[in-house]
Amino acid sequence: MSNLRAGLIGLGMMGRHHARNLNALEGVELVAVADAFGDVHNVAGDVPIFSDIDDLIEFGIDYCVVAVPTHLHYEIGKKLAAAGVHALIEKPLAGTYAEALELAELFETAGLVGAVGHIERFNSSLQELRRRLNAGDLGNIYQISTSRQGPFPSRIADVGVIKDLASHDIDLTTWVAGCGYKTVASQSLHKSGREHEDMVAATGLLLNDVTVNHLVNWLTPTKERRTTVVGAGGMFVADTLTSDLTFFANASVDSEWQEISHFRGVAEGNVTRFAFPKPEPLRVEHEYLRDAIEGDSSREIVTLRQGAEVLRVCEAMLDSSKTGNTITL
After folding, report:
1. Number of structural domains in the chain
2. The domain that contains 33 carries what CATH number?
3. What's the mean pLDDT in 265-282?
4. What CATH number does the domain containing 156 carry?
5. Do 316 and 169 belong together in one domain?
6. What is the mean pLDDT of residues 63-72?
7. Residues 42 and 185 both lie in one domain
8. pLDDT band at residue 150, thresholds of 50, 70 and 90?
9. Which residue range forms the structural domain that includes residue 175?
10. Do 238 and 153 fall into the same domain?
């Protein structure tokens, strides 16, 4: 079987990492790249460098990775769907939920594989967390909390922290819980003098009555990427910076205090940090996409429709921040 012919548009911070992985991926050949500003990071190697998506499509590709600014995703995505080219589009999928939903429908109608670059799903700590949750290691899930904080990335100019960062947490929460959002409420701040919000605190309720909360900002001097899941059996903590997963078990402890004997609570039990392989998440994401394009339905990519649903929740957060209301989805 011949290699899949891959193209890449956008050679910036994420684009160069996509190029590295495409060049190393078995069964795939990076045949051409495109960027209006050229190859500033010298990642193209010997392949042709074009200025726009039209030339890249005309050159002949089976699928394309889209790593350009968010406001360009919609038009590029439409051209790829019209040309019959599979795609991996970086998150957020589009500038608005309406645009994202249209892209999802275009790719589905054309029978194409479309994926969104919500890379956190492919972090080994979250993959292991989901496997253990599905195996019933925690029992009933009560709460999912995320913290995604760090310095401002100057390369992000066309969206705020909700669509750029909180979108990760929305996607991984629905994926881990296997359930969508019922309600969401949020408060956001603008502290860096930009048009878009740079800090948000959000709470919500999933359709299965699991409570969620998200702390996200671009105003913290050190990075934090943590997902906590509390349930009947204790608490899982996944750190996606280190790809570590730790389990804090509940312990049953008898109390001799008659006055509090009526209170049914939990006590600290054993703490376990799990050992498991930790491949690069972006490499895993590319492997899953390659296999899905080749027809392997067992590879669970982030679909365009799922990416659109993430944007629906993002827009509900923005609406809640402006109105002060809890938004029902």
Report:
1. 2
2. 3.40.50.720
3. 91
4. 3.30.360.10
5. yes
6. 96
7. no
8. very high
9. 121-278+310-328
10. yes
In which residue are the tokens 């392949």 written?
A: 47
Residues 55 and 106 in one domain: yes
Residue 253 has pLDDT above 70, yes or no: no
pTM of the model: 0.93
What's at 209, amino acid-wise?
D
**Mean pLDDT, residues 243-265:** 72
Round the average pLDDT of the chain to a whole number and report it. Answer: 94
Q: How far apart are CA 317 and CA 325, in angstroms?
A: 10
Long-range CB contact pairs, 132-135, < 8 A, 24+:
132/236, 132/245, 132/247, 133/176, 133/229, 133/236
Compute the C-alpha angle 278/236/214, nearest 5°.
95
Q: Are residues 91 and 193 in the same domain?
A: no
Determine the Cα–Cα distance for residues 188 and 206; give it in Å rounded to an integer.
21
What the block records as the tokens of 306 is 């799922």
Q: Which pLDDT does position 119 carry in this prediction?
A: 97
Strand order in the sheet with 199-206: 267-273, 244-251, 234-239, 224-231, 141-149, 211-217, 199-206, 181-189, 327-328
